[in-house]
Fold each of these.
Amino acid sequence: MAPRSECGAAAGRQRSSAPLQVLLFLNGWYSATYFLLEAFIFVYKVLLLPYPFTNLVLDVALLFLYLGTEATRIFFGSKGNLCQRKVPLSISLALTIPAAVMAAYYLLLQTYALRLEAILNAILLLFYAVELLLGILALVSFSSVDSY
């Protein structure tokens, strides 16, 4: 019987994507930094700009929704990649779409968009594009069957 790895898969050919794993790790740190910077930026905007209360509630609620979505996406992406499982990686790839929509909202549609926010969101969208590409390649790699 073949030895089992930590994730329950038989030890054999390693198909997990190292670049995807590095990118997920870096995106985890970037997301935490992004959340804190956005929170401080909201405080700045509320203190200095005539921010409508309903828009503020919407923007802050979307920021917390983004935090939950991003944490879930990174967790499933990391576990799916390391354990070479299609379902968690697929969930992570599916959650990339709403996370990118929220980043596009903060880039284009929020009440007051600062230049710093535009730069932060452009970097975030770049992360998402590369992760989506690497995630699809990893998913294809997991789906291929060994011929030996």
Note: Residues 18-48 form the longest helix (31 residues).
Amino acid sequence: MGSSFSSATKPKIFYPPSPEEILVKKPGGGVGPESLSKLVEEHCPSLKKEFNPPWWLNNGHLQTLFSVAGDFTSVDKVVYERTYLRLMDGGTLGLDFTPPGDTSPDDAPIVVVCHGLTGGSYEAYVRAVLAPACAPVSEGGLGYRAVVVNFRGCAGVPVTSKQLYSAGWTEDLRMATIYLAHKYPRAPQLGLGFSLGANVMVRYLAEEGERSRLESACVLGNPWDLVKNNWALEHTFLGKHIYSKGMANNLVNVLKLHSKALEKVDPPTPSATSKYEPDSTQASLVCAAYHAALALRSPPLSVFDNTFTRVGGGGPPDWPLASADAYYKHSSSHHVVPQVRKPLLAINSTDDPVVVHAPTSPEEVGSGYTVVVLTEGGGHLGWFEPSSGIVLIGTDVSKLHVRRWMTKPTLEWLRLAAEVLVHGHPDHPPRAIFVDEGGWIREVNGARQGLGCRAVEIGDLIDGTELKKEPGMFQGL
């Protein structure tokens, strides 16, 4: 893959050689098995429609740069209500729910969103899906609930421990799904991941297998093989000096924003409610990595990852990792696809300048649950096309009328997953949830000792178009 000039073409759909038989609700009542490929053919017709970029966004670089530099504040209005989750390791997640006010039915499907590298709920690519997905049915929407899992330090979420996030750290998404299952036990959870968040989501699905709390997922712009991507970025001028350094610049700015939490090792403060104590050695390593990262001058992504992410991008026992290359090998998602046991739709662009490969061969996919779609244009999380067949200029000549091609097929997949598929696996249910004596929401026989959370603050209303990216940060990545 890579950037090239593109015109109107139909996407290529790669079905598994032996598509899984998925249990579905039958129109006349009852349930029965149906081939995943047949379900996609019937319920996701937009995947067969051409992606037709406008003439002025006719390659992957232009699509990607417009996603970064465009003004999307006037479209896809979404209002969120934020809940902060305090984790047992001391960290904090920001869950942005929409629609606010908890007015949806208790069993309304929940779209669980993981954003890109340094993004959040404000990202235009997130709102392009959630605005119609969460609009009332009476207004043409799906009527679903959604929650954006804002990673530690992103979108105004404070850093309250010596750890951030990374492409390979799945525990925060896992904890968010546990909290949602506790709060809305009757609601199916549907995954939606973008870029780095897509990678996290695929790894979560593979780790959980049949017991995944996500009933399905749609992932867009997944980087898949981080080793190949890094090599490709390092070996082209634009890759190294625009994309790689641009992404590293965002990450450096995340560290600067949270300097008070990362610049020194605080004395240990035992928790009155949690028996889990953070690793003091890891905290010292993260503090040292923070200072080393801030001393870098315009680093490419691999240098930043070798300096900080391999140390502070996760927690014990896997972190710290030996090098950036070890981090990329550990955190890639292309090699875990065969372990996915929930329906997964993956959409990538062949001219994505930061993602050079997507798994399409039977040997790479290895799972009857996974469908991969490649468009011949769209860049990285762009997929912009004219909103009417031609490029229109409205009353404000600075705003060109475009829409994202990916919105329709994503909504079709979400509706299929929510309203057609049978949810839950009778032989492999998710682990039971309990609240311990300290008030922490946890799993019975959870895989990690320190996995638990509790809500510490609820109620802030946030306009997704007004929640600004932090100074010096690029949107859309």
Note: The two ends are 18 Å apart (CA to CA).
Amino acid sequence: MAARCVRLARRSLPALSLCLRPSPRLLCTAAKQKNNGQSLEEDARPGEQKAEPAAADKVLLEEKGRLEEQLRETVEKYKRALADTENLRQRSQKLIEEAKLYGIQGFCKDLLEVADILERATQSIPKEEIKDENPHLKSLYEGLVMTEVQIQKVFTKHGLLRLDPVGAKFDPYEHEALFHAPVEGKEPGTVALVSKVGYKLHGRTLRPALVGVVKEA
């Protein structure tokens, strides 16, 4: 009995092994499914990798734009600062030059009074009395004239010019009208009489000349 069972088992083993062996079609299908799964995973990974660099590029571009804007603002501020500095330098230079030119303005005004007194003293001496028979008066007059000439030379040297505008056109920037009167033979609007001479310091009126102006009859 036992021997019979053994023989039956031996006969059944080959058939059982055939049943348990996987078919080639099943193996091919399983391989394809495995490959498709791997391909899907590989396709998904590059997408994730591409998404990460895109976000990083966006952040870098935003940072670049922000830095470029800061650079433009800084350059503009620098240019404005340079312009302000240059304007300040020019104003300071102009003030320094004006101080050099017009720093003696107060001193010149005081000297004008001295020149006026000297001129009146010279004019007060009668010309007919200036004779050799009167040597003292003649010497005094000559001394006054020489002093007046010298002081005018000093004025001219320092940019102080005398204004004696008889016959000139009336200029409100250089002349001060004391009166208006018709004068025969004179053009209206011109200076007929100078009561007190004026002066200009480097082109700027230091003291206007006091004048009488001709008007139409």
Note: DSSP finds four helices and six strands in the chain.
Amino acid sequence: MNGEEEFFDAVTEADPRVAGVMCVDTGRSNGIGKVGERPPRENGIQKHRTALPAPMFTRSDFSVWSILKKCIGLELSKITMPIAFNEPLSFLQRITEYMEHVYLIHRASCQPQALERMQCVAAFAVSAVASQWERTGKPFNPLLGETYELIREDLGFRFISEQVSHHPPISAFYSEGLNQDFLFHGSIYPKLKFWGKSVEAEPRGTITLELLKHNEAYTWTNPTCCVHNVIIGKLWIEQYGTVEILNHRTGDKCVLHFKPCGLFGKELHKVEGHIQDKNKKKLFMIYGKWTECLWGIDPAAYESYKKRERRGDPLSKAQPDDSSQKADGDVLDAVPEAQETVHVIPGSKLLWRVNTRPPNSAQMYNFTSFTVSLNELQSGMEKTLAPTDCRLRPDIRGMENGDMDLASQEKERLEEKQREARRERATQEAEWQTRWFHQGSNPHTGTPDWLYTGGYFERNFSRCPDIY
């Protein structure tokens, strides 16, 4: 096991509007079972919980630096962090949060023009990272063979994911519209880098969205996420990097720039970009914040407004956070002050707005309402879930219930069980066999990918491994 993989284990990481926009295309199979077929139990039709069973465990009594300073000269990969720095979710469930704003996919499917469809897809790509705002807890690493399913009839989709590799850690996922309007799939390999004061997570892997009615496929990769002040100080998150969304049928491309914070926090959370055709002609300008909203406007109107803005008074700048102090010889990464909300250019079109978080979100690991429901284990679900589902994982369940001692003990037990299974396979010279996904090439990019094999929702779980 190399240091990078262990570091992922060790260091803290970082409104439903589906009605009226869902298109029905019952003439096409979704690739899982028969058209119109439903699993034995759909959990999406029920009301979902609005709070966790226990409030978040305080992290104020723990210091990453208090652990690391005792290990100077030792290999970082061997350092184990307290479970208090986790959040009660698996990384597979964290991936499922992409689906919180799935109404944007349904809306895209109903748009007659390619430009309008790309606008919706761009908004969906930005919305997929919005739930990470202020989420400084690290999700639990999925065990090899771990799965997570989610069926939401109210939001019009079902979702399945599997941890297909442990070295390196790779999570594969597949989702489809219940009205056969879309397929959404990919595999994520979070590449982590430790920079002394911050942890940078680069989510390698291609994300693919297929709009079946239009025979269109869009591909992109997510921006880089960085968690600052992991050693000491107040944790804060930023997303940065360029995201390019390609429509493989038309050649249209959306280029989105997630801006790094900048010197005085002026660019914090900002997203700017454009949609261009295959000849690189700009068709539409996009701007906003990944934590708030996304707007778009015609390029001519955008340029005209920017010219007037440059001739006028410059925008006021945020000042550095005066509360940042030096400690133990280290300078903190100053927490940028939140800038004023997005200034809307006259004539702009709203593409997406973030859902309001529940009032008690700060006591629930800064979860959104959608996230709060992900680990809910409703009565009778054990009979229909795969035995590898995250909801059945005892360490996460213990943490969610506020029993940190049990959670820590179970985490150690599960990790040792996984190591023992790996040693046994090595002795027998047996290769791990994935259950629901297989290695292949992305049909649109040709790059290596993990593809859904099918059959999960037929619910034959007899060959599932015993991982808990």
Note: The first strand starts at residue 86 and ends at 90.
